[in-house]
Amino acid sequence: MVRKPRNAAREAEEGIKDYIRTHRLRTGDLLPSESVLCEELGCSRSSLREAVRTLSSLDVVEVRHGHGTFVSDMSLAPLLRGLILRITLDLENSLENLIHVIDTRQALDLSVAEELAAAYRGKSMDHLHLLVQGMRDQHQAGRSFATEDRRFHATLLSPLENPLVKELSEAFWQVHMQVLPQLKLSMPEDIELTIEAHADMLDALAADDPEAYREVVLRHYAPLRRLLGMGQRDKSA
């Protein structure tokens, strides 16, 4: 029986993933040429090219024209794109879906309190305080402080041993920052409370007080939660 093209492409996709696994290829390693892969996997060039396009969209491989196909860093970018689409296309439940993202990000922040307190015990956090001051300065000048906020959270979590927590936190940060404008939601009027919560997080860590840190995390998200709550009430009115 002749294989359908879609099935052939799917088999080629699985074959490429198996090749990466069995040859223990790592991020940045070059895959064989198209002709070699076709022979290795027993597939046509068209099926292989479709498989590469699919894997490229999933950030498994990266095509560098004129140089070849390389193993990518397999980031969470596809998850990020999928979450943003899910929230913005499902207009009926968009606010609820964004709240679920905030819930998950907050849960991650709460879960690392002890590890962060241990990591920063006796350590200088001057670089983080500078980022907080940068947020204040940008806000007072009427400008977005998103860059400083993103750097703060990435830097704060950098000592964690679990890379997935850091990647997920970054992904959820990007989702909520990109989705808010698409839902026609502006920054909360009391956003200053969120800015100051960043400084209070550092004070809690300096005091080696994980419980205080968790309390500040809840305050950090409070203005955003109030904004989303108002959006829900407006939608139901």
TrEMBL record:
UniProt keyword terms in alphabetical order: DNA-binding, Transcription, Transcription regulation
Keyword Magnesium: no
SUPFAM superfamilies xref list: GntR ligand-binding domain-like, Winged helix' DNA-binding domain
Protein name according to UniProt: Transcriptional regulator
SMART domains from the UniProt entry: FCD, HTH_GNTR
Transmembrane regions listed in the UniProt entry: none
Residue stretches making up the HTH gntR-type domain: 6-74
Gene Ontology molecular functions: DNA binding; DNA-binding transcription factor activity
One matching Pfam family: FCD
